[in-house]
Amino acid sequence: MKGNGIQIICLIFLFMLGAVVTDVGAAVISVNDNGGGNYSTIQEAVNNAQNGDIILVSHGVYKENIKVDKELTIISHSTLSGDRADRTYVIGALPEENIFDIYSSNVTMEGFCIFGCPSETNFHRIGIYLEGVENCSLSNNTLILNDLGIVLNDSQGNYLNRNLINLGSNGIVLDNSENNILSNNLVATNNHGILLNNSVNNTFINKIAGLSSIRIYQINGSIDLMPPLNKILSGNNSENVSNNNNILLALLSEKYSKNLRNTQEKSDVVQVTELGQINTSLQKGPVFFRLGAEWCPSCQAMKPILGELATEYRGKATIMSADVDQRPEFRAYLGVRYIPDSSVIMGIENGEYVYMQENGNVSKDRSQARIVGLRNKEVFEKVLDLALLYESKEKSRQSSL
């Protein structure tokens, strides 16, 4: 097998037709409500997990209220397998308690359908509640019939992406929370869309569509990158919409979010043959640069992700790729040892590339900014969003000088 000394990172655990990539040393804990996993409830898995572990939850219905006090990745199996027909539902068992309470930083949660209560008159308090945390990521979750969908209290530097929040009182609430990024969330037919209370320097990227209403408090100092809303739903409330089963089924199958994604104009990934192409693209904005090879399975699996990123960030960032076998000088110049190897380039300073790190800092040291291996698309989106946020702040700072 050809590879010119480059090792492939391929640490993959297989679970029931799905796969998850994880760091060395992290344990993968399976949850199955039919008893086929390590545990039958999510809370049991959390209680027995260690910091850094991954909890993989099989599709099914879990009636429980969950408290997360460790640094964990909690993922629905349907997210990894790509099978959206078999969803993972979490229904609160105690109406007076939140369904998910997150009290630890560095928690990732993705792919769950969270129902407050089957009764229209007895809502749970909060679907997902974060208190005093940093660097948590909530992605591709659907929250329905919760009084409050997602609440961040005294929390900084968290990331909310592609969540659907529907049929509740308030969609997203930020209370005394700063420097959070909300991207591509859909907040529909709630009494209020987003509430900010004493919260500044938060960023809203791309569309938040289908709001029944939106009321923002003390937004001075926050950066709002949302274009004008395409549509404001008027005359609807949680009660009359919840009686319409067709609308509810459409929400569960994510037709709204799929339609939004399908309206985007497709864009191509740029194949790089010389570094001058990167330098030219940097004049327009950040560059996501992936190095790989044709013989690398993980690199091939990453191609659809690159295509989606190119479409999603069209006009805002350039998605570029290069083959290290065809351009071995890239491997030497950039110090590539493992593939796929990705990084977000912000610009050039004194003849050196400047990179965006996953923690939001910039550095000329590529070793601190490279993203190695096949990762979930949300990881790449997070770094790109951080790059766009940094770029926006720099432009604002320079214009004020």
Write up what this structure looks like.
The protein has 401 residues and is an alpha/beta fold. It has two domains: 256 residues, Pectate Lyase C-like; 131 residues, Glutaredoxin (3-Layer(aba) Sandwich), CATH 3.40.30.10. Helices cover 22% and strands 32% of the residues. The protein is built from nine helices and 32 strands. A nine-stranded parallel β-sheet has the order 4-5-8-11-14-17-20-23-24, with helices on both faces. Strands 25, 26, 27, 29, 30, 31 and 32 form a seven-stranded mixed β-sheet that branches. The N terminus is likely disordered.
What's the quick description here?
The chain is an alpha/beta fold and about 400 residues long. The chain has nine helices and 32 strands.
CATH superfamily of the largest domain: Single-stranded right-handed beta-helix, Pectin lyase-like
Count of distinct strands: 32
End-to-end separation: 56 Å
Quickly name the level 1 CATH class of the largest domain: Mainly Beta
CATH topology of the largest domain: Pectate Lyase C-like
Q: Uncertain spans, ≥5 residues at pLDDT below 50?
A: 1-24, 118-122, 209-215, 217-264
**What's the shape?**
globular
Any idea how many domains? 2
What's the CATH architecture name of the largest domain? 3 Solenoid
Helix run count = 9
Mean residue pLDDT = 77
Oligomer: single chain
Strand order across the biggest sheet?
Answer: 4-5-8-11-14-17-20-23-24
Structural class: alpha/beta
The residue fraction in helices comes out at: 10-25%
Radius of gyration over all CA atoms, rounded:
21 Å
Largest sheet: 9 strands, parallel
How much strand content do the residues show? 25-35%
